[in-house]
Design goal:
With about 160 residues, this protein is mostly helical. Helices cover about 95% and strands about 0% of the residues.
């Protein structure tokens, strides 16, 4: 009995497959294979197109670099010239600043000397003014004395000339 059961069990597992399944699976496998071929062909074409485009871009980039080389060289020369001019401008600015400082020191020194001389001149003016005032007063006093003396002499002379008459 055991033997019979095993036989029926294996027969049950091996049920006949309908006839249309095999060709359907084969056709499906053909379509899947064709899809993989299409994918591979598409990937190949895209890779070829990318390679061609990359080669074209590399060529254009090389031409662009060649066209830009004179411009880049000119810009490098201009930058070097700009650096040189900047250095010269800095030197000139420093020289102008130095000259300005020296000039300012000279002007300040001159202004101090002029102020000192003006103070001396003011002091001299005060002394001369005082001396002139004193001299004027002395002259006025002397003139008064002379006038007074002249009038006294005039009186003496009149007295003397009256007595002779």
């Amino acid at each position: 009995m055991r033997h019979v059961k095993a036989k029926s069990l294996s027969l049950d597992l091996m049920t006949p497959i309908p006839g249309w399944v095999g060709p359907t699976v084969a056709i499906a496998l053909v379509f899947i294979a064709l899809a993989f071929v299409a994918i591979a062909a598409t990937a190949f074409l895209l890779a070829k197109r990318a390679t061609d485009r990359s080669r074209d871009l590399a060529k254009e980039l090389a031409e662009f670099r060649q066209d830009l080389r004179p411009t880049i060289d000119a810009l490098n020369r201009l930058a070097a010239t700009g650096t040189d001019v900047g250095g010269r401008l800095k030197e000139e600015a420093l020289a102008v600043i130095d000259t300005s400082r020296r000039l300012r020191r000279g002007v300040i020194s001159g202004a101090r000397r002029v102020q000192g001389r003006l103070r001396d001149l003011d002091a001299l003016y005060e002394v001369v003014h005082d001396e002139i005032e004193d001299t004027a007063l002395d002259v006025a006093a002397t003139l008064r004395t002379v006038r007074t003396g002249a009038s006294a002499l005039g009186r003496i002379k009149r007295l003397l000339t009256r007595g002779r008459r």
